[in-house]
Recover the amino acids of this structure.
Protein backbone atom coordinates (compact mmCIF):
# COMPACT_ATOMS: atom_id res chain seq x y z
CA UNK A 1 0.00 0.00 0.00
CA UNK A 2 1.63 3.26 -1.22
CA UNK A 3 2.65 5.60 1.58
CA UNK A 4 2.05 3.04 4.35
CA UNK A 5 4.91 1.32 6.17
CA UNK A 6 4.33 -1.21 8.96
CA UNK A 7 7.30 -2.60 10.87
CA UNK A 8 8.57 -4.04 14.17
CA UNK A 9 10.62 -1.89 16.50
CA UNK A 10 14.17 -2.95 17.36
CA UNK A 11 13.01 -5.31 20.12
CA UNK A 12 10.46 -6.88 17.75
CA UNK A 13 7.87 -6.63 20.54
CA UNK A 14 5.98 -3.61 19.20
CA UNK A 15 4.37 -2.76 15.84
CA UNK A 16 4.75 0.76 14.41
CA UNK A 17 3.03 2.32 11.42
CA UNK A 18 4.37 5.22 9.33
CA UNK A 19 1.94 7.08 7.03
CA UNK A 20 3.34 9.53 4.42
CA UNK A 21 0.54 11.73 3.01
CA UNK A 22 2.87 12.99 0.26
CA UNK A 23 2.87 9.53 -1.32
CA UNK A 24 -0.88 8.97 -1.04
CA UNK A 25 -2.89 8.60 -4.24
CA UNK A 26 -6.09 8.72 -2.16
CA UNK A 27 -7.16 8.53 1.48
CA UNK A 28 -6.06 5.35 3.24
CA UNK A 29 -8.69 2.77 4.29
CA UNK A 30 -8.49 1.64 7.93
CA UNK A 31 -10.26 -1.68 7.19
CA UNK A 32 -7.87 -2.53 4.35
CA UNK A 33 -4.81 -1.88 6.54
CA UNK A 34 -6.31 -3.92 9.40
CA UNK A 35 -7.05 -6.84 7.03
CA UNK A 36 -3.45 -6.72 5.80
CA UNK A 37 -2.18 -6.79 9.39
CA UNK A 38 -4.28 -9.91 10.14
CA UNK A 39 -2.94 -11.83 7.16
CA UNK A 40 0.76 -11.17 7.46
CA UNK A 41 3.52 -11.62 10.00
CA UNK A 42 1.59 -9.50 12.49
CA UNK A 43 -1.54 -11.71 12.54
CA UNK A 44 -0.82 -13.22 15.98
CA UNK A 45 -0.03 -9.87 17.62
CA UNK A 46 -2.34 -7.51 19.43
CA UNK A 47 -3.45 -4.65 17.17
CA UNK A 48 -5.13 -1.61 18.70
CA UNK A 49 -7.89 -0.61 16.34
CA UNK A 50 -8.26 2.68 18.13
CA UNK A 51 -4.61 3.63 17.63
CA UNK A 52 -4.74 2.49 13.98
CA UNK A 53 -7.87 4.54 13.27
CA UNK A 54 -6.41 7.60 15.00
CA UNK A 55 -3.23 7.40 12.87
CA UNK A 56 -5.20 6.95 9.61
CA UNK A 57 -7.61 9.79 10.42
CA UNK A 58 -4.67 12.11 11.14
CA UNK A 59 -2.83 11.13 7.92
CA UNK A 60 -6.00 11.54 5.81
CA UNK A 61 -6.50 14.97 7.29
CA UNK A 62 -2.91 15.89 6.32
CA UNK A 63 -3.58 14.57 2.80
CA UNK A 64 -6.68 16.76 2.46
CA UNK A 65 -4.94 19.95 3.54
CA UNK A 66 -1.78 19.15 1.52
CA UNK A 67 0.33 18.74 4.64
CA UNK A 68 3.16 16.31 3.85
CA UNK A 69 4.16 15.72 7.49
CA UNK A 70 4.53 11.92 8.08
CA UNK A 71 2.39 10.33 10.82
CA UNK A 72 4.02 7.72 13.07
CA UNK A 73 2.03 5.68 15.60
CA UNK A 74 2.52 2.54 17.71
CA UNK A 75 -0.44 0.37 16.88
CA UNK A 76 0.37 -3.11 18.22
CA UNK A 77 2.45 -5.29 20.48
CA UNK A 78 3.26 -8.79 21.52
CA UNK A 79 1.37 -9.82 24.63
CA UNK A 80 2.13 -12.78 26.82
CA UNK A 81 -0.71 -14.87 28.18
CA UNK A 82 -2.70 -13.31 31.02
CA UNK A 83 -3.29 -15.38 34.16
CA UNK A 84 -6.15 -14.80 36.59
CA UNK A 85 -7.25 -16.88 39.59
CA UNK A 86 -10.90 -16.94 40.64
CA UNK A 87 -11.38 -18.29 44.17
CA UNK A 88 -14.88 -19.54 45.10
CA UNK A 89 -16.71 -17.81 47.94
CA UNK A 90 -16.37 -20.87 50.16
CA UNK A 91 -12.67 -21.14 49.18
CA UNK A 92 -13.17 -24.80 48.27
CA UNK A 93 -12.18 -24.40 44.62
CA UNK A 94 -10.09 -22.21 42.34
CA UNK A 95 -10.64 -21.57 38.65
CA UNK A 96 -7.81 -20.49 36.40
CA UNK A 97 -8.63 -18.03 33.60
CA UNK A 98 -6.00 -17.99 30.84
CA UNK A 99 -6.12 -15.36 28.10
CA UNK A 100 -4.32 -16.79 25.06
CA UNK A 101 -1.19 -14.75 24.11
CA UNK A 102 -0.93 -12.35 21.17
CA UNK A 103 2.30 -13.71 19.69
CA UNK A 104 3.78 -13.88 23.20
CA UNK A 105 4.57 -16.68 25.61
CA UNK A 106 2.50 -19.11 27.68
CA UNK A 107 3.68 -19.72 31.25
CA UNK A 108 4.64 -23.23 32.29
CA UNK A 109 2.54 -25.29 34.70
CA UNK A 110 5.22 -24.82 37.36
CA UNK A 111 5.14 -21.03 36.87
CA UNK A 112 1.36 -20.99 37.29
CA UNK A 113 1.61 -23.10 40.44
CA UNK A 114 4.16 -20.64 41.86
CA UNK A 115 1.87 -17.74 40.97
CA UNK A 116 -1.00 -19.56 42.74
CA UNK A 117 1.16 -19.89 45.86
CA UNK A 118 1.88 -16.16 45.71
CA UNK A 119 -1.90 -15.63 45.66
CA UNK A 120 -2.16 -17.68 48.88
CA UNK A 121 -3.57 -20.75 47.12
CA UNK A 122 -1.75 -23.42 49.09
CA UNK A 123 -3.64 -26.74 48.86
CA UNK A 124 -5.39 -28.90 46.31
CA UNK A 125 -3.52 -27.60 43.24
CA UNK A 126 -3.45 -30.12 40.38
CA UNK A 127 -0.53 -29.79 37.94
CA UNK A 128 -2.27 -32.13 35.50
CA UNK A 129 -5.34 -29.88 35.40
CA UNK A 130 -3.10 -26.85 34.77
CA UNK A 131 -1.30 -28.67 31.94
CA UNK A 132 -4.62 -29.56 30.28
CA UNK A 133 -5.66 -25.90 30.36
CA UNK A 134 -2.32 -24.85 28.87
CA UNK A 135 -2.84 -27.29 25.99
CA UNK A 136 -6.23 -25.68 25.30
CA UNK A 137 -4.75 -22.19 25.52
CA UNK A 138 -1.99 -23.14 23.08
CA UNK A 139 -4.60 -24.04 20.44
CA UNK A 140 -6.83 -21.06 21.21
CA UNK A 141 -7.09 -17.90 19.15
CA UNK A 142 -5.16 -14.84 20.44
CA UNK A 143 -7.16 -13.15 23.18
CA UNK A 144 -9.49 -16.12 23.65
CA UNK A 145 -10.19 -16.97 27.30
CA UNK A 146 -9.76 -20.55 28.53
CA UNK A 147 -11.15 -21.38 31.97
CA UNK A 148 -11.07 -24.43 34.21
CA UNK A 149 -10.79 -25.64 37.78
CA UNK A 150 -7.21 -26.20 38.94
CA UNK A 151 -7.51 -26.54 42.72
CA UNK A 152 -9.97 -28.22 45.05
CA UNK A 153 -10.37 -28.11 48.77
CA UNK A 154 -11.84 -30.93 50.82
CA UNK A 155 -15.20 -30.14 52.42
CA UNK A 156 -15.58 -31.44 55.97
CA UNK A 157 -17.68 -34.56 56.40
CA UNK A 158 -19.79 -34.57 59.50
CA UNK A 159 -20.05 -37.79 61.42
CA UNK A 160 -23.15 -39.95 60.94
CA UNK A 161 -25.64 -39.87 63.78
CA UNK A 162 -26.23 -43.04 65.70
CA UNK A 163 -28.39 -45.50 63.78
CA UNK A 164 -30.73 -48.24 64.88
CA UNK A 165 -30.46 -51.87 63.83
CA UNK A 166 -33.48 -54.14 64.44
CA UNK A 167 -32.41 -57.49 65.90
CA UNK A 168 -35.58 -59.26 64.81
CA UNK A 169 -37.28 -59.05 61.37
CA UNK A 170 -40.81 -57.81 60.77
CA UNK A 171 -43.28 -60.53 59.86
CA UNK A 172 -43.84 -59.08 56.37
CA UNK A 173 -40.10 -58.93 55.70
CA UNK A 174 -39.80 -62.59 56.69
CA UNK A 175 -42.55 -63.61 54.29
CA UNK A 176 -41.11 -61.60 51.40
CA UNK A 177 -37.69 -63.18 51.94
CA UNK A 178 -38.21 -66.97 51.66
CA UNK A 179 -35.61 -69.22 53.26
CA UNK A 180 -33.00 -71.00 51.15
CA UNK A 181 -33.56 -74.74 51.61
CA UNK A 182 -30.56 -76.48 50.06
CA UNK A 183 -28.02 -73.70 49.63
CA UNK A 184 -29.15 -72.66 46.15
CA UNK A 185 -32.89 -73.17 45.61
CA UNK A 186 -35.53 -71.10 47.31
CA UNK A 187 -38.47 -72.88 48.92
CA UNK A 188 -41.48 -70.56 48.68
CA UNK A 189 -43.26 -72.57 51.36
CA UNK A 190 -40.43 -72.32 53.84
CA UNK A 191 -40.94 -68.89 55.34
CA UNK A 192 -38.94 -69.47 58.51
CA UNK A 193 -40.31 -69.49 62.01
CA UNK A 194 -42.89 -66.97 63.11
CA UNK A 195 -41.10 -64.28 65.10
CA UNK A 196 -42.55 -63.86 68.59
CA UNK A 197 -40.23 -62.62 71.30
CA UNK A 198 -40.27 -63.25 75.02
CA UNK A 199 -39.93 -60.74 77.83
CA UNK A 200 -36.48 -59.08 78.00
CA UNK A 201 -35.57 -60.16 74.46
CA UNK A 202 -33.22 -57.77 72.64
CA UNK A 203 -35.17 -56.21 69.76
CA UNK A 204 -33.29 -53.06 68.73
CA UNK A 205 -29.65 -51.98 68.92
CA UNK A 206 -28.33 -48.43 68.81
CA UNK A 207 -25.03 -48.12 66.94
CA UNK A 208 -22.59 -45.40 68.06
CA UNK A 209 -22.36 -42.22 65.99
CA UNK A 210 -19.47 -41.79 63.57
CA UNK A 211 -16.55 -39.42 63.88
CA UNK A 212 -16.41 -36.46 61.54
CA UNK A 213 -13.58 -35.91 59.07
CA UNK A 214 -12.00 -32.48 58.92
CA UNK A 215 -11.56 -30.77 55.59
CA UNK A 216 -9.49 -27.89 54.25
CA UNK A 217 -9.90 -25.01 51.84
CA UNK A 218 -7.52 -23.98 49.07
CA UNK A 219 -5.88 -21.45 51.38
CA UNK A 220 -4.84 -24.26 53.69
CA UNK A 221 -7.30 -23.48 56.48
CA UNK A 222 -8.66 -26.48 58.38
CA UNK A 223 -12.44 -26.87 58.15
CA UNK A 224 -13.72 -28.44 61.34
CA UNK A 225 -16.17 -31.32 61.03
CA UNK A 226 -18.90 -32.15 63.52
CA UNK A 227 -19.10 -35.58 65.11
CA UNK A 228 -22.37 -37.46 64.84
CA UNK A 229 -24.92 -37.19 67.61
CA UNK A 230 -26.44 -39.83 69.85
CA UNK A 231 -30.10 -40.18 68.96
CA UNK A 232 -32.60 -41.27 71.56
CA UNK A 233 -34.67 -44.42 71.12
CA UNK A 234 -38.18 -43.85 69.83
CA UNK A 235 -39.81 -46.42 72.03
CA UNK A 236 -43.12 -47.88 71.05
CA UNK A 237 -45.42 -50.17 72.99
CA UNK A 238 -43.95 -53.09 74.89
CA UNK A 239 -40.32 -51.90 74.88
CA UNK A 240 -37.83 -50.37 77.31
CA UNK A 241 -34.13 -49.49 77.38
CA UNK A 242 -32.01 -52.27 78.84
CA UNK A 243 -30.73 -51.54 82.37
CA UNK A 244 -27.41 -53.25 81.58
CA UNK A 245 -26.81 -51.65 78.20
CA UNK A 246 -28.20 -48.19 77.28
CA UNK A 247 -27.75 -49.02 73.58
CA UNK A 248 -30.17 -51.95 73.63
CA UNK A 249 -33.94 -51.88 73.51
CA UNK A 250 -35.65 -54.91 75.05
CA UNK A 251 -39.20 -56.17 75.07
CA UNK A 252 -41.22 -55.78 78.24
CA UNK A 253 -43.91 -58.22 77.09
CA UNK A 254 -44.11 -61.40 75.05
CA UNK A 255 -45.38 -60.61 71.59
CA UNK A 256 -44.73 -59.84 67.93
CA UNK A 257 -42.07 -57.16 67.16
CA UNK A 258 -42.47 -54.60 64.42
CA UNK A 259 -39.96 -51.88 63.43
CA UNK A 260 -41.43 -49.05 61.38
CA UNK A 261 -40.51 -45.36 60.97
CA UNK A 262 -37.63 -45.81 63.45
CA UNK A 263 -40.08 -46.97 66.14
CA UNK A 264 -39.93 -50.49 67.58
CA UNK A 265 -43.18 -51.90 68.90
CA UNK A 266 -43.77 -55.26 70.52
CA UNK A 267 -47.47 -55.97 70.19
CA UNK A 268 -49.21 -58.16 72.69
CA UNK A 269 -50.00 -61.19 70.54
CA UNK A 270 -53.05 -63.40 70.50
CA UNK A 271 -52.10 -66.83 69.21
CA UNK A 272 -54.60 -69.49 68.13
CA UNK A 273 -54.61 -72.61 65.99
CA UNK A 274 -57.43 -71.43 63.73
CA UNK A 275 -60.47 -69.17 63.56
CA UNK A 276 -63.75 -70.97 63.00
CA UNK A 277 -67.21 -71.44 64.44
CA UNK A 278 -65.69 -73.13 67.47
CA UNK A 279 -63.37 -70.26 68.40
CA UNK A 280 -65.68 -67.42 67.36
CA UNK A 281 -64.65 -64.05 65.96
CA UNK A 282 -61.34 -62.56 67.11
CA UNK A 283 -61.15 -58.91 68.16
CA UNK A 284 -57.85 -58.03 69.81
CA UNK A 285 -55.93 -54.92 70.83
CA UNK A 286 -52.56 -56.08 69.56
CA UNK A 287 -51.21 -58.55 67.01
CA UNK A 288 -52.98 -61.74 66.01
CA UNK A 289 -51.19 -64.92 64.97
CA UNK A 290 -53.30 -67.73 63.53
CA UNK A 291 -51.49 -71.04 63.08
CA UNK A 292 -54.21 -72.53 60.92
CA UNK A 293 -57.11 -71.64 58.62
CA UNK A 294 -59.75 -68.94 58.87
CA UNK A 295 -63.09 -70.36 57.77
CA UNK A 296 -66.14 -68.86 56.07
CA UNK A 297 -67.89 -65.79 57.54
CA UNK A 298 -65.38 -65.40 60.39
CA UNK A 299 -64.03 -62.00 61.49
CA UNK A 300 -60.58 -61.03 62.72
CA UNK A 301 -60.07 -57.46 63.90
CA UNK A 302 -56.73 -56.40 65.41
CA UNK A 303 -54.93 -53.12 66.15
CA UNK A 304 -51.59 -54.69 65.19
CA UNK A 305 -50.40 -57.08 62.47
CA UNK A 306 -52.45 -60.13 61.53
CA UNK A 307 -50.43 -63.17 60.46
CA UNK A 308 -52.23 -66.27 59.22
CA UNK A 309 -50.20 -69.43 58.65
CA UNK A 310 -52.97 -71.06 56.70
CA UNK A 311 -55.84 -70.45 54.29
CA UNK A 312 -58.58 -67.81 54.43
CA UNK A 313 -61.99 -68.57 52.96
CA UNK A 314 -64.73 -65.93 52.64
CA UNK A 315 -63.72 -64.18 55.88
CA UNK A 316 -63.21 -60.53 56.84
CA UNK A 317 -59.87 -59.47 58.27
CA UNK A 318 -59.15 -55.93 59.52
CA UNK A 319 -55.72 -54.85 60.73
CA UNK A 320 -54.19 -51.67 62.12
CA UNK A 321 -50.87 -52.90 60.70
CA UNK A 322 -50.06 -55.48 58.02
CA UNK A 323 -52.00 -58.56 56.95
CA UNK A 324 -49.90 -61.60 56.05
CA UNK A 325 -51.48 -64.79 54.70
CA UNK A 326 -48.83 -67.42 54.04
CA UNK A 327 -51.07 -69.69 51.96
CA UNK A 328 -54.05 -68.31 50.09
CA UNK A 329 -57.39 -66.53 50.27
CA UNK A 330 -60.58 -67.17 48.35
CA UNK A 331 -64.06 -65.76 48.28
CA UNK A 332 -67.27 -65.46 46.27
CA UNK A 333 -68.27 -62.51 44.11
CA UNK A 334 -71.79 -61.47 43.15
CA UNK A 335 -72.75 -61.05 39.50
CA UNK A 336 -72.00 -57.33 39.21
CA UNK A 337 -68.77 -57.62 41.25
CA UNK A 338 -70.03 -55.22 43.92
CA UNK A 339 -69.90 -57.58 46.88
CA UNK A 340 -66.99 -59.83 47.89
CA UNK A 341 -67.34 -62.44 50.62
CA UNK A 342 -63.58 -62.34 51.40
CA UNK A 343 -62.32 -58.93 52.54
CA UNK A 344 -58.82 -57.88 53.65
CA UNK A 345 -58.50 -54.35 55.07
CA UNK A 346 -55.21 -53.01 56.47
CA UNK A 347 -53.65 -49.73 57.50
CA UNK A 348 -50.25 -51.06 56.40
CA UNK A 349 -49.44 -53.55 53.61
CA UNK A 350 -51.02 -56.87 52.62
CA UNK A 351 -49.39 -60.11 51.47
CA UNK A 352 -51.27 -63.14 50.15
CA UNK A 353 -49.59 -66.18 48.63
CA UNK A 354 -52.38 -66.62 46.06
CA UNK A 355 -55.97 -65.49 45.84
CA UNK A 356 -59.24 -65.38 43.97
CA UNK A 357 -62.41 -63.43 44.53
CA UNK A 358 -61.10 -61.18 47.32
CA UNK A 359 -61.48 -57.50 48.11
CA UNK A 360 -58.16 -55.99 49.22
CA UNK A 361 -57.87 -52.48 50.68
CA UNK A 362 -54.70 -51.06 52.24
CA UNK A 363 -52.64 -47.89 52.59
CA UNK A 364 -49.36 -49.62 51.77
CA UNK A 365 -48.23 -52.12 49.15
CA UNK A 366 -49.94 -55.32 47.99
CA UNK A 367 -47.71 -58.33 47.34
CA UNK A 368 -48.98 -61.62 45.92
CA UNK A 369 -46.78 -64.71 46.02
CA UNK A 370 -47.98 -66.53 42.89
CA UNK A 371 -51.33 -65.57 41.38
CA UNK A 372 -54.36 -63.32 41.84
CA UNK A 373 -57.59 -63.36 39.83
CA UNK A 374 -61.18 -62.04 39.89
CA UNK A 375 -60.43 -59.62 42.73
CA UNK A 376 -60.70 -55.95 43.59
CA UNK A 377 -57.62 -54.10 44.85
CA UNK A 378 -57.33 -50.61 46.37
CA UNK A 379 -53.91 -49.60 47.67
CA UNK A 380 -51.80 -46.54 48.44
CA UNK A 381 -48.63 -48.13 47.09
CA UNK A 382 -47.59 -50.69 44.48
CA UNK A 383 -48.90 -54.11 43.43
CA UNK A 384 -46.35 -56.91 42.92
CA UNK A 385 -47.15 -60.48 41.91
CA UNK A 386 -44.23 -62.87 42.43
CA UNK A 387 -40.93 -62.56 44.25
CA UNK A 388 -40.02 -58.95 45.03
CA UNK A 389 -36.65 -59.10 43.24
CA UNK A 390 -38.07 -60.86 40.14
CA UNK A 391 -41.88 -60.87 39.91
CA UNK A 392 -43.06 -63.72 37.67
CA UNK A 393 -46.60 -64.33 38.98
CA UNK A 394 -49.93 -64.07 37.17
CA UNK A 395 -52.44 -61.22 37.49
CA UNK A 396 -55.72 -61.26 35.53
CA UNK A 397 -59.42 -60.41 35.66
CA UNK A 398 -58.98 -57.84 38.45
CA UNK A 399 -60.07 -54.26 39.09
CA UNK A 400 -57.11 -52.33 40.55
CA UNK A 401 -56.70 -48.82 41.92
CA UNK A 402 -53.05 -48.18 42.71
CA UNK A 403 -50.69 -45.26 43.37
CA UNK A 404 -47.46 -46.89 42.14
CA UNK A 405 -46.23 -49.55 39.71
CA UNK A 406 -48.16 -52.75 38.99
CA UNK A 407 -45.63 -55.53 38.29
CA UNK A 408 -46.13 -59.21 37.47
CA UNK A 409 -44.82 -61.91 35.21
CA UNK A 410 -48.05 -62.14 33.22
CA UNK A 411 -50.68 -59.39 32.98
CA UNK A 412 -54.02 -60.53 31.61
CA UNK A 413 -54.95 -63.97 30.27
CA UNK A 414 -55.20 -65.83 26.97
CA UNK A 415 -58.98 -65.67 27.23
CA UNK A 416 -58.80 -61.87 27.01
CA UNK A 417 -60.41 -61.39 30.43
CA UNK A 418 -60.42 -57.74 31.46
CA UNK A 419 -57.71 -56.40 33.74
CA UNK A 420 -58.33 -52.76 34.71
CA UNK A 421 -55.74 -50.57 36.40
CA UNK A 422 -56.64 -47.01 37.42
CA UNK A 423 -54.06 -44.56 38.81
CA UNK A 424 -56.47 -41.58 38.90
CA UNK A 425 -57.72 -41.37 42.54
CA UNK A 426 -54.27 -40.94 44.11
CA UNK A 427 -53.26 -38.43 41.43
CA UNK A 428 -56.46 -36.40 41.85
CA UNK A 429 -55.97 -36.27 45.61
CA UNK A 430 -52.45 -34.98 45.00
CA UNK A 431 -53.76 -32.36 42.53
CA UNK A 432 -56.42 -31.25 45.00
CA UNK A 433 -53.80 -30.71 47.69
CA UNK A 434 -51.53 -28.91 45.23
CA UNK A 435 -54.32 -26.59 44.05
CA UNK A 436 -55.24 -25.75 47.65
CA UNK A 437 -51.61 -24.99 48.47
CA UNK A 438 -51.15 -22.91 45.30
CA UNK A 439 -54.26 -20.86 46.12
CA UNK A 440 -53.03 -20.26 49.66
CA UNK A 441 -49.63 -19.27 48.29
CA UNK A 442 -51.18 -16.80 45.85
CA UNK A 443 -53.14 -15.04 48.60
CA UNK A 444 -50.14 -14.98 50.90
CA UNK A 445 -47.93 -13.46 48.19
CA UNK A 446 -50.47 -10.73 47.45
CA UNK A 447 -50.76 -9.88 51.15
CA UNK A 448 -46.98 -9.94 51.59
CA UNK A 449 -46.43 -7.52 48.68
CA UNK A 450 -49.08 -5.17 50.03
CA UNK A 451 -47.63 -5.31 53.54
CA UNK A 452 -44.11 -4.67 52.19
CA UNK A 453 -45.33 -1.50 50.49
CA UNK A 454 -46.85 -0.31 53.77
CA UNK A 455 -43.69 -1.16 55.75
CA UNK A 456 -41.49 0.68 53.23
CA UNK A 457 -43.80 3.69 53.48
CA UNK A 458 -43.61 3.67 57.29
CA UNK A 459 -39.80 3.50 57.18
CA UNK A 460 -39.74 6.71 55.13
CA UNK A 461 -41.83 8.58 57.70
CA UNK A 462 -40.74 10.21 60.91
CA UNK A 463 -42.53 8.10 63.52
CA UNK A 464 -43.41 9.64 66.91
CA UNK A 465 -41.70 7.98 69.86
CA UNK A 466 -44.99 6.74 71.34
CA UNK A 467 -45.61 4.70 68.16
CA UNK A 468 -42.17 3.06 68.02
CA UNK A 469 -43.37 -0.08 69.79
CA UNK A 470 -46.29 -0.50 67.40
CA UNK A 471 -43.94 -0.12 64.44
CA UNK A 472 -41.63 -2.78 65.93
CA UNK A 473 -44.62 -5.10 66.37
CA UNK A 474 -45.64 -4.52 62.75
CA UNK A 475 -42.11 -5.27 61.54
CA UNK A 476 -42.06 -8.47 63.58
CA UNK A 477 -45.41 -9.53 62.10
CA UNK A 478 -44.14 -8.79 58.60
CA UNK A 479 -40.98 -10.79 59.28
CA UNK A 480 -43.04 -13.77 60.48
CA UNK A 481 -45.34 -13.51 57.47
CA UNK A 482 -42.33 -13.51 55.10
CA UNK A 483 -40.91 -16.57 56.84
CA UNK A 484 -44.28 -18.34 56.47
CA UNK A 485 -44.37 -17.37 52.79
CA UNK A 486 -40.95 -18.93 52.21
CA UNK A 487 -42.04 -22.11 54.02
CA UNK A 488 -45.24 -22.36 51.93
CA UNK A 489 -43.21 -21.79 48.74
CA UNK A 490 -40.94 -24.69 49.71
CA UNK A 491 -43.96 -26.92 50.38
CA UNK A 492 -45.48 -25.92 47.03
CA UNK A 493 -42.25 -26.93 45.30
CA UNK A 494 -42.28 -30.27 47.15
CA UNK A 495 -45.89 -30.82 46.05
CA UNK A 496 -44.97 -30.11 42.41
CA UNK A 497 -42.09 -32.59 42.68
CA UNK A 498 -44.48 -35.15 44.22
CA UNK A 499 -46.84 -34.68 41.25
CA UNK A 500 -44.01 -35.21 38.76
CA UNK A 501 -42.76 -38.20 40.75
CA UNK A 502 -46.23 -39.77 40.76
CA UNK A 503 -46.49 -39.57 36.97
CA UNK A 504 -42.98 -40.98 36.64
CA UNK A 505 -43.56 -43.92 39.00
CA UNK A 506 -46.92 -45.22 37.75
CA UNK A 507 -46.51 -47.99 35.17
CA UNK A 508 -47.34 -51.56 34.22
CA UNK A 509 -44.54 -54.10 33.97
CA UNK A 510 -45.05 -57.58 32.50
CA UNK A 511 -41.87 -59.61 32.88
CA UNK A 512 -43.16 -62.51 30.77
CA UNK A 513 -46.24 -61.58 28.75
CA UNK A 514 -48.93 -58.91 28.36
CA UNK A 515 -52.22 -60.19 26.95
CA UNK A 516 -55.10 -58.40 25.22
CA UNK A 517 -57.75 -56.89 27.47
CA UNK A 518 -55.40 -55.06 29.85
CA UNK A 519 -56.28 -51.37 30.28
CA UNK A 520 -54.57 -48.61 32.24
CA UNK A 521 -55.94 -45.17 33.04
CA UNK A 522 -54.96 -41.79 34.47
CA UNK A 523 -58.03 -39.54 34.37
CA UNK A 524 -58.92 -39.04 30.67
CA UNK A 525 -55.68 -40.62 29.40
CA UNK A 526 -55.96 -44.36 28.86
CA UNK A 527 -54.31 -47.24 27.01
CA UNK A 528 -55.60 -50.71 26.20
CA UNK A 529 -53.77 -53.73 24.84
CA UNK A 530 -55.48 -55.03 21.71
CA UNK A 531 -53.10 -57.93 21.13
CA UNK A 532 -50.55 -60.11 22.88
CA UNK A 533 -47.12 -58.67 23.72
CA UNK A 534 -43.89 -60.21 24.95
CA UNK A 535 -42.01 -58.73 27.95
CA UNK A 536 -43.09 -55.13 28.07
CA UNK A 537 -43.82 -52.02 30.11
CA UNK A 538 -46.48 -49.33 29.80
CA UNK A 539 -45.34 -45.95 31.12
CA UNK A 540 -46.85 -42.48 31.40
CA UNK A 541 -44.68 -39.86 29.70
CA UNK A 542 -45.53 -36.51 28.14
CA UNK A 543 -49.18 -36.75 29.25
CA UNK A 544 -49.64 -39.98 27.28
CA UNK A 545 -49.33 -43.71 27.89
CA UNK A 546 -46.54 -45.41 25.94
CA UNK A 547 -45.88 -49.09 25.33
CA UNK A 548 -42.20 -50.13 25.52
CA UNK A 549 -40.79 -53.62 24.97
CA UNK A 550 -38.39 -54.84 27.67
CA UNK A 551 -35.14 -55.91 26.05
Amino acid sequence: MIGVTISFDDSRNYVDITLEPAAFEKEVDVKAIHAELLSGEFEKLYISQGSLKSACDKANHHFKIKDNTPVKERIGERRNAEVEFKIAEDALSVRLILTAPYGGLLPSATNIRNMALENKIKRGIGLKRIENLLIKAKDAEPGEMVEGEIAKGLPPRNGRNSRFVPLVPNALERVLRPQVSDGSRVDMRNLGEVICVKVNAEVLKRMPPGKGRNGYDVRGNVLEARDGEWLDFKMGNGTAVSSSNPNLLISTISGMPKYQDMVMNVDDTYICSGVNVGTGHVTYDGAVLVNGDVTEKMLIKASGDVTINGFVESARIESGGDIIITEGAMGKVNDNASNYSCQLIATGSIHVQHGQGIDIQCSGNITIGRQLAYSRLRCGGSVTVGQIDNPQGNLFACDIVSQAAVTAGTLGAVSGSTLKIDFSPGFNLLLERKDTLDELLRHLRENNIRHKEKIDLIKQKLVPSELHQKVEDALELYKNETALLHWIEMKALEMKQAKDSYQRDIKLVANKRLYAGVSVKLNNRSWRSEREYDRSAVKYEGHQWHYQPIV
Confidence is low (pLDDT under 50) at residues 179-194. The radius of gyration is 39 Å. The helical segments are 30-39, 49-64, 109-118, 127-139, 171-176, 424-460, 468-505.
